[in-house]
Structure formats: structure tokens, C-alpha cells
Amino acid sequence: MRRHILREIKYINRFALCLLMAFVPIASLGQKLDSLERILKTKKLTDQEMIDIHKDLAQGYINDEPNRSRSFSMVGHDLTERTGDQKSKVKFLYYLGSSYYVSMMFDSAAYFLDKSLVLARKNGDDDSEVSILKMYGQLYRRQGQYEKALDRYFEAAKLGGQLPDNSKMCDVYMGIGGTYHLMQNNTQALYYYGKAEQIALKYGNGQNLGDIYLSLSSVYRSKDDGKQKAIHYAEESLKIHRKSGGRSNEISALQALCGAYFQFDDYRAAMKYAEEALLLAKELDNKNLIAHSYADISSISYYMQQYEKAAETALVALKTDSTDHHLKLTIFSNLPLIYAHLGNFNAMEEYMEQYKLAVDNYSNETYQNSLSTMEVKYQTEKKELKIEALEGQKKLYIWLGIAGAAILLVALAFGFVRYRLAVSRRKLAEEETWRTQQEKQLVAVQATLDGEAAERKRLAKDLHDGLGGMLSAVRLNLPQVKGDALLEALDVTRFQTALGMLDDSIHELRRVAHHMMPESLLRYGLKISLTDFCTAIPIADFHYFGNEARLPEKLEIMVYRCIHELVNNALKHAEATKINVQLVQEPDRLSFTVQDDGKGYDRETVTEGMGLRNIRQRVGVFQGKLDIYSTEKGTEVHVELELSKNGEND
Questions:
Q1: Which of 271, 441, 451, 605 sits 20 to 30 Å CA-CA off 352?
Q2: Alpha-carbon distance 388 to 311, whole Å?
Q3: CA–CA separation, 277 vs 296, rounded Å?
Q4: Is 541 helix (H, G, I), strand (E, B) or coil?
């Protein structure tokens, strides 16, 4: 059991490292970078040409030489300040954040990413915003904040799904899959890696394909029957990265191969690839990659019963990079076992305590920071009180005056607190009354909606089964009547017209019955029913993201009705040529957006109609949030619902 636990921690650590470079821009070949640098030194260039070359150099050196990347980014940033090229300025800020991330200077990375995100949103640069949000996800994941990482990735997925070029969605799906794998949710990880692989193959992106194969190797290492796939994907990744010349990614592929052979007990092969990765990492002088290579060698040496070497390399790894939380956890969990075999029980106890402290410190980091702040504040206040007491002894009369003023202030403060308490009680009472009224109103609205849904079901059934059946029977009998009667030519024409009108009436009745309560919604859920609905409208597109788990029936009906009403509003009033419907379903949240390119309206002067008010009521019943954005270029309505709050509405 202990061996499996160690390996599971090892998978997470190795996988985090394999994905370290996954969302940093792709490095150019060394010859191309050298050629660009020669052009800078030998040719007279315009400002724009200088900016373009600095962008290529800053991007190209990020993975292997982040310091050089930062130098070119700073020069390029200064050029954009002079020329006013805001779009390129966003790129240089983003490259600065990415290079600091590669150098594991996370505070600096967050600083430049914040600046680039603000500027990208100000410029309306959606393409750059997607890249920045991806890097945020990478940063949070590297720090072990997986929920924050997923929030950023899904935000990037939502925005990237609206772009004409969806090639960047490959990186987004890789990030989501990687985060799920670190959370040991391999089913979701494989799902998103599959989506990423499809896009990489579609656009012929070998770099991304190599990273995806690296990730798939890590996933299959955690499966008992995954040896062949784990080794196969790692070897394919190594071929791709060696061909592209990305040395950091080549090291990650070597370490993945090491991990695959280690997992399936081929320690000699694992040691071969670990030592090869260490040599390349030292040439690159990347401390994190060096540390992980030493950690690999330590784990392999332990299982080869080379305990002295295992202890030595573990300590070197810890000394090389002490900032990686996952790496520290692995080493602190391995060292007690190593020292137990060496008979050094003092060291064993020491590192068992270090492991416990590492886990506790990581879990309580926020709490400890707050405690430190309070301690500093307490010590400061304590010193100030001592100084105040000494000064009071020297100046007794002044102290008495201060004491009298303090008493007066306390009295005033006491009176003020009592007044505030009275105001607070009154506000609480008013809020309670308002909340009670709101609850009654919500209950009434919910009852109305339930009644409406039930009535729609009944009417749809009656129309389809009752009146629809009757009209169909009439349609079947009329031709027989015609066959038994002698009709003039004019009467025959009228008879045929009547049959056509009857057919149209039957078709229209079935359409109305279907839209009153779509059978596909009740049987298959939102995705299928909304796909059918939007397919029937030539200018409407439907996009669905997330899992396809069924939701409570009332919630599905509410979402369908809201989208139905919003699309009809766009068709009737907006004069739109394109309508985009998007639904994002997550485990704890559901959101949908209806966007059109119509004429929009001024929300200050135009009163909301009954349909929009009904939508607000429906969303309010489920404690959702509705936002409307309208300009002369179109209208967007966005609704968010927290699924955890809607359990009571099931």
C-alpha cells in the first residue's frame, strides 16, 4: 500500500512537471532566432519591424532562456510605449508574465499577467485574453489551487468558443484535462485530452500534439493495464519534441518515459531515461527540471535498494528547488522510508515530521499568514502602549487631559454603538420582512410556473392526441368522400385547396404542440432539444460546453423556455442576421447566453416587455442572475444559475 501511495504522489508531481511548459508559447528553432538577432544588429528597421522581431524573439526564448525572453520583452514594451501599439504591448506584458512563470517567480508572473489582462479587455482583444486566461490557469495549477485553475480555464473556453479560429481551444482543453488529472479525475482528463487531440490533428500542431501525448502517458501510468499505452505515448512525444528542438519539452518527455518504466517496475530502463533527462536539464540550467530529475533518480534508487544513493539524490533535489510544493511532498514522504532502511531512525523521524509540517503548512497557509499579520499588529500596538505610558509619566497633566478626552470618546463611542445597534436591528427587521415577502412571491411564482408547465403538457397532449388525431381522421376520410361523389372541375379545385389547408393545419398544430412542451426535452434533455430548436432556425447557432448530465425537470423546462423566448425576441424585434445560443453546464453551475447582431436598444429609454419580465421571474425563482448588454451592434443576454442552490426546486 505504501508503495502505491508513493507512486500516486509521484504521478501527480511528474504530471505537473510534464505540463509545466504546455501553455507557454511555442519556441522557434535556434537558427531562426539567431537570424533575427543578426537582423536587429545589422539592418536599419522601422519601429514596427523592430516590434515584430522583438515579439518573435521574446516568444521564442521563453521555454529555454526565459531571461533573454524578458530582455527582448522589455525593449519591445518600451517601443510600444513610444508608438502607441496597444495590441503588441499586451503581447509583451503576456510574454513577461510567461517568462517569469517559467523561472518560477510566480508573484512577478501574476503582476504582469494582471496588467496584460486589464489592457487586453480594455482593447477588446479577445484572442489575447484567451491566452492570458490560459496562463492564469497554468499558474494556479502550478501552485496547487485547482479550483481557481478550472475557473480560469472554463472562462477561457467560454470566450475561445466564440472566436472564429478555435485552434487555441487545444491549449484550453489540455489545461482542463491536466487539472482534472492532477485532481485524479482521469475520466474527465481523458475526455478533454481527446478534444485537444482532435484540434491539434486538425490544425497540424505538432508541438501541442507532443504535449498531449505526454499527458496521456501520465494518465495511462495510473492504470494497471496501461503500460503499453503509457510507454507508446511517451515515446511519440519524445520524437515530436526532439524534432521541434524544444529542449524543455524533450526533458519532460524523457521524464515521462522514466515514469512509465518506473511504474511498471523496469527500474534499469527508468534510470537510463532519468539520467539522460538530468544531463539535458543541467545543460539548460532549469532548476525545477534538475530537481525533478534528481527526485526520479532517488525514487528509482530506493526500489533498486541503493539506499545511500536514494538519500543523497533526494537531498540534492530538495536543495536545488525548495519552492515546488509537490516535489517537497514527494521527497519528504520518501526520505523516512530511505532512512529506515539505512537504520538512521533519527533522520527518519525528522523527515516524517517535515512531511507532516509540509502538508499542514500548505493546508493552513492562509491561516498562518493571517496569524503572522495579527502577531505583528499586536507587537506594534504593545510597543506603542509602552511609549505612551512613559510619556504619560513625564507629562502627567497632559496624560490626565488625554485620559479625560479618552473617557469622553468612549462615552461617545458607546452612544454611537448603541445607536448603530438600534439601526441594525431595525434594518434586520425590515430585511426579514422583505425576505418573507420575497419568499412568498417566489412560492407564488413557482406555483404559477408549475401550473403553466402542467397546463402546457396537458394542452400539448390534447392538441396532439385529440385535435390532431381528429384532423388526421378527417384528412383520411375526405378522399373517400371525393371518390364517391361527382364533382365539377371548380369543386375539385376547391376540394384540393381544402385538403392542402387541412394538411397545413395538421402540420401547424403539431408544431405548436411540440413547442408547448417538446418531447425531446422531456426524454433527452436540454442539449438535444435546444439543438433541434436552433437547427429549425436558419440564422441560429447552438454551442454546448460541459457534461451532459440530466438536470431537474423544472430547471430544464425553465432554461428551455427562457432561451425560446429570447430567440423569439431576437427574431421579432432585433432584425438580426445571426443569433448565437451558448449553454455551459458544470457540476455546480449552469449558464446560458443568447447573443444577436441586431440593432439593439437603449435600456434607459425602452421599457422591458412582458416576455423579458417573465424571464426575470423564472430566473429569480431559481435564484439566478440575469444580465443584459445591448448596443447598436447587437444584444447579449447572459444568465447564470448555481446548481447547488436549486436542489430545493427539484
A1: 271
A2: 56
A3: 10
A4: strand
Q: Running DSSP on this structure, what letter comes out for residue 467?
A: I
> Which residues have a Cβ under 8 Å from the Cβ of 166 and sit 6 or more positions away?
160, 199
- The number of CA neighbours under 13 Å toward the Cβ of 175 is 33
CA distance linking residue 17 with residue 289, whole number of Å: 8
pTM, rounded to two decimals = 0.44
Fill in the DSSP letter of residue 644.
G
pLDDT (0 to 100) of residue 210? 83
Burial of 606 (0-12, 13-18, 19+ CB in 10 A): exposed
* pLDDT tens for each residue of 348-365: 888 888 877 777 765 555
Listed in sequence order, the residues at least 6 apart from 587 whose beta carbon sits closer than 8 Å to its beta carbon are: 547, 643
**The predicted structure's pLDDT at residue 17:** 38
Contacts of 69 (CB under 8 A, 6+ apart): 57, 58, 59, 60, 61, 62, 95, 98, 99
Phi, psi of 529 (to 5 degrees): -65, -40
Which is nearest to 160 in space by CA: 186, 134, 121? 134
The CA distances from residue 523 to 456, 468, 529, 545, in Å, are: 16, 21, 9, 20
Indicate the residue type of 341: H
What mean pLDDT do residues 369-387 have?
A: 46
CB-based contacts of 70: which residues, under 8 Å, 6+ apart?
A: 58, 96, 99, 100
**Beta strands 579-585 and 589-596, pairing class:** antiparallel
Query: Cβ contacts of residue 25 below 8 Å, gap of 6+?
Result: 59, 62, 95, 98
Distance CA 302, CA 338 (A): 7
Q: What is the sign of the dihedral through the CA atoms of 307, 312, 315 and 321?
A: negative
* Cell numbers describing residue 276: 539522460
pLDDT bin (cut points 50, 70, 90) of residue 248 is confident
Residue 115 pLDDT > 90, yes or no? yes
Confidence of residue 286 (pLDDT cuts 50, 70, 90): confident
Cα first-last separation, the chain: 42
With beta carbons less than 8 A apart as the criterion, state whether 22 and 211 touch: yes
CB 173 within 8 A of CB 209: no
Backbone angles phi, psi at 217, to 5 degrees: -60, -40
More confident residue, 72 or 521: 72
